Structure formats: C-alpha cells, structure tokens
Amino acid sequence: MTLTDAELELYPQISLIARQIIAQCFSPSSIVPGVTTLEDLDWLFWQICSDNSLGLSFKPYFNLLRSKSVAEKHPRSDGIIRRGDLLICDVGIKYLGLYTDHQELAYVRHNDEKDAPQGLKKLLAMNNRLQNIFMREFKHGLTGNQLLENIHSTAQKEGIHHQWIFSHSLGLFVHEPGPVIGLPWEQDLIPGRGEIRLEYDSCFAMELLIEDVVPEWNNQRVPCQTEHIVKFTKDGCQPLDSVQTSFHLI
Fold this sequence. Notes:
Strand content: 15-25%
CATH superfamily: Creatinase/methionine aminopeptidase superfamily
Order of helices and strands: HHEEHEEEEHHEEEEEE
Number of domains: 1
Structural class: alpha+beta
Oligomer: single chain
Distance between the termini: 38 Å
Helix content: 25-40%
Largest sheet: 5 strands, antiparallel
C-alpha cells in the first residue's frame, strides 16, 4: 500500500503526463462534433501511449452524457460526439512502475457558446466541494468503512445530498492493496477490504460522483463523476498534482 519517498517524488510528474494525454484527447484538434466517435477517442488515447512507449493501466474508456431533448433526435447509441454533449473519460497509464487512474470531463460547445452552461459548471463546483470533504476526512488509522461513513455524513451536513464515494488505493497496483472506501454498487459497510486501516505515504484514486438538476437541460438530473489521485502523508491528504476545476472545452 505505502510508497517510498522516491516514488512519491516521481508520482506527480507521472500523473501530469497522464493528464496531458487526456487534454490532448479532449481538444478541438482531436474532436470534430458530428464526426468523431467515442471509439475514436479510445484508439487515440491508446495510440498516444503507444507512440510514447507508455503502458496502460486498463483499456481506455470514453463516454458521453446528453440532454434528453437532444437524445430524442440523436440517440447516444451511435457513439457520435455532438455539440452540447458532456464527455467523460476513465483512463490510466503505467510509467516507471506506477499506475494512474483518472476521470475528467469535457464539454462540446454549441456554435454560440463560449463556455459550458452555468448548470454544468455548478455541478463541477459541487463535485470539487465533495473532493475537499473527502480529503479533510483522511486521518491515520481509520478504516475504509469509517472514512466512507465520515465523508457521507459531512457531505450531508454541508448540503451535498446525492453523492457516491468509490475510492481505492493506487500506486504499484491499480485497485489493491489498501482500504476500499465504498464501491460503485455498494455505499454501505464493506467486509474485508473496507476494514483495512489507512497508513501514511499511500495514494488513492479519489473517485466520486454527485448528481443534481441542470436548468439548461430542462432540469434533468445529471451525474458528475471525477477521479483524481491524492496522497496521504503526515502533512495530510492533498491532490498529487491538482484536480479539475473547469471543463475541457471543445
């Protein structure tokens, strides 16, 4: 679970490389609305890693969210990226023996838009609030189950009512060893891995999700899911490099 000083020093740079690849995939030079598909992005990420002799943590995954009104005309099943779509990736690289695992978001603007709709921006800001709560609750010796309960309780008190936590340790492995803090399909106490205690000098994929209505999408409930790497040391829990606070814009 724990990492050496040398690994903790290298890890931020490895994370930065992984996020630079995400930014390249989520850019106007890579995506042509109405033409580019989600599968194209899968292969693009794979190709960039291959070109730079980087390993993969797992098969790259790209998906999209679309307002119901637009989906009636253009079903998501065709996989074509269109204006107004919210894109999400779940990707990772392996470099110098360390793995990354990130989920970031991009918005495909309409021709008359300079930025994402305010409702989506508020959704990401709420997600950032939950990330701060997540990091504040990290205390040495707590189990994954205790962390899950504390994060949920604090988030509820701070007005974030629709939230899911599914975090896992990260570093020399993608999903283990170390405590599991919730699962996508289980937000209750988890036997076994949920009882492992938190140790200093360990890193985690801070994977979480919030959901709220977006006025610009006819008050449709929209999930906002992110995943960034955090490190836990005697100085506390903090992002390995940074977290996403604004959308990649296409």
